[in-house]
Amino acid sequence: MLQTALDRLKIKGKSLLPIVQGGMGVGVSAHRLAGSVAALDAFGTISSVDLRRHHPDLMVKTGKSRDRALIDSANLEALDREVKAARALAGGRGMIGVNIMRAVSEYASYVRQACESGADAVVVGAGLPLDLPELTSNFSKVAIIPILSDVRGIGLVLKKWMRKQRLPDAIVIENPKYAAGHLGAPTPEGLNNPNFAFPHVLEGTRQLFKDMGLESENIPLIAAGGVNSHEQVRLLMGMGADAVQLGSAFAVTEEGDAHPNFKKVLVEARPEDIVTFMSVAGLPARAVRTPWLASYLAREEKLQRAAKQRPCTVGFDCLVSCGLRDGIAKHGQFCIDTRLAFALAGDIERGLFFRGSEKLPFGNAIRSARELIDYLLNGVKPVLNIVQYPTVRAAESALVPA
Questions:
Q1: How far apart are CA 374 and CA 360, in angstroms?
Q2: Contacts of 92 (CB under 8 A, 6+ apart)
Q3: CA-CA-CA-CA dihedral for 203, 13, 246, 222, to nearest 10
């Protein structure tokens, strides 16, 4: 097992290495990644979104169906399979969490299924999970962990949960300035708000615990967003974080559940390739400017002007509020499930590839989760070989007429 001089992360009676692998959907963090991370004595996370795409029999069952109940049922079955497979792979070590977006319509069903399937924790972002204590009230052994970005949001959740005699078992503090995927700010312009800075939020949250009489509860704080080095891990833990969470760096590990092309897109992205835009979920999002995204952004204003209500194009309402389906002009105008599914399958030209803004720990090398965790905790960096493969830029040039 990996060892470190850094303090361990204590959640729900478990003692873990202070590394959390973030949830990434559609299907980027499923049982293989989460179980492998947990087997190393850290915290692995399955993303609950549309997991049927990892199960050919469930895809055959749902096919091109527009039956929302059938698709939702298949996704719950897939989540059950993934949690159980991750637990088997972990062999009783670490923790297996399930990340669930508050913004999805089947949020409550996913929470219940994760608990029933044996997840150690439920992690909720993309909205305030004010009802999470009620949804998990019959599962006292399951840790509940909100993802929040500022002291104000943390205070609101704490006050609401305390009225229900419940406290978070940990809090993920995600800085939207650096994170991937859906970001915890109302607009892209708000991502640079100084209230999201780690020193401000960590210090402010510790003071909030004192003011609310919660200091003795020792609620762990997990810093997320832009973490990419051993030195940064030590710095954040010195500021008061109990652990760090990483997404993109784990997505490109050998154990990551997405197609090899997905990993290649992420590791090859230059700083100028990474863009922020409005998602259909009504939140800013950060991803790699691949051919589809470049084409969409060029047409975004025109599509937003023409926004109108329309039937869901994939047969199930994956989001409570969808800019495309509901005709919300200020939100994104594309089917996010379809685009993320293309990315999962390695379709460079048509996929949406979420990625954080900062450099990856091993550059363009794809290495193991064990090597990543060892580097983050102990500064041990493996000998890296340069990997040669088709790049995002090569795919883009192929679309330009000669």
A1: 15
A2: none
A3: -10
Which helix (H) or strand (E) covers residue 45, if one does? Answer: strand 43-47
User: Which pLDDT tens digits describe the chain residue by residue (402 residues)?
Assistant: 788 999 999 999 999 999 999 999 899 999 999 999 999 999 999 999 999 999 999 999 997 788 889 999 999 999 999 999 999 999 999 999 999 999 888 999 999 999 999 999 999 988 899 999 999 999 999 999 999 999 999 999 999 999 999 999 999 999 988 898 888 888 888 888 888 999 999 999 999 999 999 999 999 999 999 999 999 999 999 999 999 999 999 999 999 999 999 999 999 999 999 999 999 988 899 999 999 999 999 999 999 999 999 988 787 768 888 899 999 999 999 999 999 999 999 999 999 999 999 999 999 999 999 999 999 999 998 887 654 444 444 333 333 332
Q: How far is CA 325 from CA 3, 107, 339, 375, in A?
A: 49, 18, 15, 44
- The strand pairing partners of 95, in sequence order, are 43
Euclidean distance between CA atoms 323 and 105, whole angstroms? 14
The string of DSSP codes covering 256-269 is -SS-HHHHHHHHH-
Q: How far apart are CA 179 and CA 173, in angstroms?
A: 11
